[in-house]
Design goal:
The protein has one domain. It is mainly beta. The termini are far apart. The radius of gyration is 16 Å and the shape is globular. It has 1 helix and 8 strands. The strands form 3 sheets. Strands 1-7-8 form a 3-stranded antiparallel sheet. It has a 3-stranded antiparallel sheet with strand order 4-5-6, with no helix packed on it.
């Protein structure tokens, strides 16, 4: 079997913690039926919804409740986005999630070799958003 290595490619990536974190999400503001403010789905990462899985269920990957997760459509189909996942913009403009440990093993910051790979200012407890 032949061996291959990745071509060196600079990617864009954003760490996702809650709905609206991706710079291309461009969410619209709405009011719920009760008149409460509500920010709609992002254009890249949407709210995770599955009628067969209660929102209070735990994610098998990260153990957070499912109601704080996102959903992203990729060329291969949809994927759950856990808080803390990286959203990578591929060479064809597509977006896909990447687990933090895979991202850190595969990528390093462009330019400053001492730059942190993690984005500062994000807490570990994503905010919950009321949904109607």
């Amino acid at each position: 079997m032949a061996s291959y290595h990745r071509k060196p490619v600079v990617i864009e990536a954003t760490r996702w913690f809650r709905n609206g974190d991706h710079p291309e999400d461009d969410r619209e503001a709405f009011q719920t039926k009760r008149g409460e403010p509500f920010l709609g789905d992002g254009k890249v990462v949407r709210y995770y919804r599955n009628p067969d899985i209660p929102s209070c269920s735990q994610c098998a990957t990260c153990r957070h409740e499912m109601d704080i997760h996102g959903w992203i459509e990729t060329f291969e189909g949809g994927h759950i986005v856990c808080p803390g996942d990286w959203i990578i913009t591929g060479i064809m403009g597509e977006h896909y999630p990447c687990k933090p440990h895979v991202f850190e093993a595969t990528y390093e910051p462009e330019g400053d070799p001492d730059a942190e790979i993690d984005e500062a200012g994000k807490d570990d407890a994503p905010e919950r958003t009321a949904r109607d």
